[in-house]
Specification:
Layout: E1 5-9, E2 16-22, E3 30-31, H1 36-40, E4 60-63, E5 68-71, E6 74-75, H2 76-82, H3 85-94, H4 100-113, H5 118-125, H6 133-143, H7 157-183, H8 196-205, H9 221-234, H10 241-250, H11 256-268, H12 275-286, H13 292-300, H14 321-337, H15 342-357, H16 359-363, H17 370-380, H18 388-408
Antiparallel strand pairs: 1-2, 2-3, 4-5, 5-6
Helix pairs in contact: 2-9, 3-18, 4-7, 6-7, 6-11, 7-8, 7-18, 9-14, 9-17, 9-18, 10-11, 10-18, 11-18, 12-17, 14-17
Bound molecules: carboxymethyl coenzyme *A.
């Protein structure tokens, strides 16, 4: 079969050239324009990457029109129903679901790497008690390279694998320590007898002074199930802003800890992972269902920066399949854990109902995304609001390290270096300070 091409013609010069059209297994084909500048002396301009594929990847597929999300080919609803977060992490990193033996070895290795170097505790002490946990995450994760520099030969696949495993294993420990620093509680060591999410809950909430309290108090199976579900839903989302940041930083050959710290920084923003925290602040601000019309009007006002947090998505234009799954679970979790948060959920549902009937939201195809609901569940599980984005970090680490491993294993990867349209002044002569007006 003849390969498809796209012809680009510059009307002013009449020059034209053909460019190959690349096809993946699913999704839109993409025109390969890396020789565009050489052939025609022009660049492409696509701020926000609205129509630009930045890489080839076989990890995650999203069909935004039809609300489809596949991890390594498996539909998200099947993984959400049947799998655990570490099994999904294995799948993302290695390409296939593990055998029982492979999963056992993977979990075992994660357990081995979950401790932090004792010197890292001192890093937390350097932060003020009211530091945002995301600020601590960026700093402490970035500093990991100072502890593991003997295994940072990025041309060695085993070094890359161990770095990825360390990241996945240590991030929950760092996350829990960030919280405990903020409340002044002693740090809790990871425990190998607990499952990944159980261990996280234990590191968050157990207290040395309350040994008599049954562990089941803070490691409730329903909470563990909810965490596993949320972590699976957030584990990967192809070339989102933070994953693209990890890839761009990695393209320079920077060490993986620095690259993941860059990803954490990108996730922090309210347009991305910070949305779950922003949704809760917004619901607090709205206060009651009577105020919904006022806030919807603000969201629609072009002169008002207010946006409905937890609504809209760059890729999903009909529904976010993760939101559909989590919405169903929300009621169940609130019933079990916190009837106090039920009014908040009712307010969220009222807001959702109002927005979905509004012409503006219908026309712009703005639907609730996963983070419209995730914060409500985290709140019911007694996770503090400023830890919500940190929870997203724990989950998305599985995706970040998988993309990093994929990219680093590609022999032809090059430094990411976009071009620009220069809009500044033309060359001009330096003026001595005394002569400047
Ligand atoms: N409230 C009100 N108007 C909105 C919203 C919103 N939440 N989202 C988009 N719009 C409008 C926007 O003003 C624009 O209008 P116009 O065409 O008149 O200029 C139009 O819809 C298209 O929006 P956009 O900003 O060009 O779309 P985008 O693809 O660049 O941004 C988004 C996607 C998710 C950043 C944006 O919808 C948003 O800011 N949502 C709120 C924050 C949020 O919930 N983020 C979490 C995303 S899901 C978790 C994750 O993957 O990180």
């Amino acid at each position: 079969m003849e390969k498809d091409t796209v012809t680009i013609k510059v009307n002013s010069t009449g020059k034209q050239a053909d460019f190959p059209l690349l096809k993946g297994t699913h999704g839109n084909p993409a025109v390969e324009i890396s020789s565009l500048n050489k052939e025609l002396g022009i660049f492409t301009y696509d701020p926000g990457f609205m129509a630009t594929a930045s890489c080839k990847s076989s990890i995650t597929y999203i069909d935004g029109e039809n609300g489809i999300l596949l991890y390594r080919g498996y539909p998200i609803d099947q993984l959400a129903k049947n799998s655990s977060f570490l099994e999904v992490a294995y799948l993302l990193m290695n390409g296939d679901l593990p055998s029982r033996q492979e999963l056992g070895a993977f979990v075992n290795e994660i357990n081995q790497h979950a401790m932090l170097h004792e010197a890292l505790r001192g890093f937390f002490d350097g932060f003020h008690y009211d530091a945002h946990p995301m600020a601590m995450m960026v700093g402490v994760v970035g500093s990991l390279s100072a502890f593991y520099h003997s295994e940072l030969d990025m041309n060695d696949p085993e070094h890359r694998r161990i770095s990825a495993m360390r990241m996945l294993a240590k991030i929950p420990t760092i996350a829990a320590a960030s919280y405990r620093h903020s409340v002044g509680w002693p740090y809790v060591y990871p425990r190998q007898d607990l499952e990944y999410c159980e261990n996280f809950l234990n590191m968050m909430f157990s207290l040395p002074s309350q040994k008599y309290i049954d562990e089941a108090h803070y490691i409730d199976p329903a909470a563990v199930k909810a965490l596993n579900l949320l972590f699976i839903l957030h584990a990967d989302h192809e070339q989102n802003a933070s994953t693209s940041t990890v890839r761009l930083a990695s393209s320079t050959g920077a060490n993986p800890y620095a690259c993941i710290a860059a990803g954490i920084s990108a996730l922090w923003g309210p347009a991305h992972g910070g949305a779950n925290e922003a949704v809760l602040s917004m619901l607090d601000e709205i206060g009651s269902a009577d105020n919904i019309p006022k806030f919807i009007a603000k969201a629609k006002d072009k002169n008002d920066p207010f946006r409905l947090m937890g609504f809209g998505h760059r890729v999903y234009k009909n529904f976010d399949p993760r939101a559909t799954i989590i919405r169903e679970t929300c009621h169940e979790i609130l019933e079990k854990f916190s009837s106090d948060d039920e009014p908040l959920f009712e307010l969220a549902l009222a807001l959702e109902e109002y927005a979905l009937k509004d012409e503006y939201f219908i026309e712009k195809k703005l639907y609730p995304n996963v983070d419209f609901y995730s914060g409500i569940i985290y709140k019911a599980l007694k996770i503090p609001v400023d830890m919500f984005t940190v929870m997203f970090v724990i989950a998305r680490t599985a995706g970040w390290v998988s993309h990093w491993l994929e990219m680093m294993a590609e022999p032809t990867h090059r430094i990411g270096r976009p071009r620009q349209i220069y809009t500044g002044l033309s060359a001009r002569d330096y003026v001595e300070i005394a002569e400047r007006k």
